[in-house]
Each structure stands twice: as C-alpha cells, then as structure tokens.
C-alpha cells in the first residue's frame, strides 16, 4: 500500500459541492481509501484574475494502485464531472492533482511526481500542512 497526497481545486458550479462529489468518487476507486482530508480553503486564483475564487482541499489516500493507475482513475473522475480543458489556467469544475506518491520520483510525459509546482502554491501547501 502507498500513501499518496492529492490536491483538489474547483471554481465553477458550486465549488464546495464539486469537492464533495470528487471525494465521493475518489472513495470509490478500487483498493483506495481516503485517510485524511484537510478543511476546504477559499483562495484567490493563481493565473488570470477574471475568474471566480477557488475552493481548495488536500487529501491523503492509501492505495494498492500504482501511480499511473491512480492518475487515470483521477482523470476519469475529472472527465465524468464534466471537466473541459479550454482556457489555459482558466476556471474549472474540478482538478485532481497527485502531489506525492509514497517517496517515488516519477518523470513521464503524463505524470511528474513530486508535483513540480506544489512548493510555489499556498493553496496546496497550507491544506497539505494541515493534514501532515
Ligand atoms: N488557483 C487557485 N487559487 N487554486 C487552484 O486550484 C488553481 N488551479 C489552477 C490555476 C488556474 C493555476 N489556479 C488556481 O489550475
């Protein structure tokens, strides 16, 4: 089993509710259990300012999946929830980013772990600190 930290963010269509829906789907990923949840933090957008504030949260999961299988499960949830990739750094219904996966270092086309931007982002570090 591996412990992984995942950052969630939403700024569209009732963002708090979107985080709850994402948590429910994540809890249904096979062999994966949510072991910690930060509180929900309201944050100013990083990037274009002409978009709503975000709701951000970080969770820990314990999983028997490998990192790519977890990534694909999270991408399936994003797609199921209606995420459309249009504006770069634009508003989004849900974003699920793997921050850490055990102590693995991964550098592939579709997945870089540890998340290369996490140490620049208060909206990730503050909720992460809360659950550590
Ligand atoms: N800004 C904040 N505050 N929270 C996010 O989750 C977030 N996600 C993003 C961009 C658009 C970079 N800005 C964000 O992807």
Q: What's the average pLDDT?
A: 96
Bound molecules: 7,8-dihydro-7,7-dimethyl-6-hydroxypterin
Helix content: 25-40%
Content of β-strand: 25-35%
Taking the alpha carbons of the first and last residues, their distance comes to 18 Å
- CATH topology descriptor: Alpha-Beta Plaits
| Total number of strands | 7
Low-confidence stretches: none
Q: What characteristic shape results from the CA principal axes?
A: globular
How many individual helices? 3
Question: How are the elements arranged and paired?
Answer:
Blueprint: E1 2-10, H1 15-27, E2 32-37, E3 41-43, E4 54-63, H2 67-80, E5 95-101, E6 106-107, E7 112-113, H3 122-131
Antiparallel strand pairs: 1-4, 1-5, 2-4, 3-4, 6-7
Q: Which features does this protein show?
A:
about 130 residues; 5-stranded antiparallel beta sheet; two-stranded antiparallel ribbon; 3 helices; about 30% helix; binds 7,8-dihydro-7,7-dimethyl-6-hydroxypterin
